[in-house]
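Throughout this chapter, every protein is written as a compact record of paired, labelled lines. An example of such a record is reproduced below:
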Amino acid sequence: IYIPSMFADTRELIELSKVVARYGGIYSTHMRNEGVGLIDSVIEAITIGLESGAPVEISHIKASGRPSWGKVSVALDLISEYASRGYDVSADAYPYEASSTTLTALLPKDIREGSRDEVMKKLSDPAVIERLRQGLGGVVLEDRYISWHDIMISYSPSHKELEGMRVDKIAEKMGLDPIEAVVRMLLDDGLATRMIIFGMRGEDVETAIKHPLVAIGSDGSVTRPGVGKPHPRSYGTFPKVIARYVRESKILSLQEAIRKMTSLPARKLRLWDRGIIRPGFKADLVVFNYYTIEDTATYENPHSYPKGIEYVVVNGEIAVERGRLLSSVRAGRVLRRAW
């Protein structure tokens, strides 16, 4: 669903993935469609893996938009079927019912094509605005049936006062229709505007989270505290999994949740010296209080650290001690290919 890979057809992706397979890499895909075309997109991803020989990782398995709700189980059945035949096919997910991406993701494929200046020039054309108005109307992302109220602006460098607001309310505040408001923000921000989309169903998220072939990740990005209204997943993903899905709803055992957040993704990414506690492995450790660990980040107040985390050890160095971040510690390392 992202540029530039969205312009590649299946055959091109197969040929590229053959090179990936030759060098021991994986085909990690943000699929072509997460809405009504979800199943076809899963089939395409699996096909690319089968024909290229590259392991497949589907990021991040979800069904976005009401018409697609319930299809996650079908998608996971497909993944399980091919995995049972010996193919290396898996997925990952995060424990939230909202996703986050750039505001440009709302635009049609041909409008997004080209350099930033070229896209901005297109958006400055009144004819393009009218086309967007006719094509998107009051319901955007046509294949998902997402309303303007389902979209919240999470980052706007030129309109900080709009961060945390829904697009329909922003349009009212600006005295514009939603299309004009979206284009205004994109042009003012140099296309850097980001959004949060509320389009998933809790039951589908749980279905994905508990599937044995699905790893758990945040899909978050590094964010300076206080900048914008980012998705709370950047602060709360892993504590939320333990608090909600293990301690409260008990859909996962603690052991399985830890596996999904550590050794499972490490093995998929071929990080052979990480992901489990073993002599000779890198010491990446979290010491937490099972009874008090809890995410505190919300969509309204995302810059909030979790409770219950006592120690964090990164590459053998203590980075969080007794719940306090040691800001002087720089123990992180870029993980480079080791096979």
Remarks:
- The mean pLDDT is 94.
- The chain is about 35% helix and 15% strand.
- Residues 72 and 204 are 6 Å apart (CA to CA).
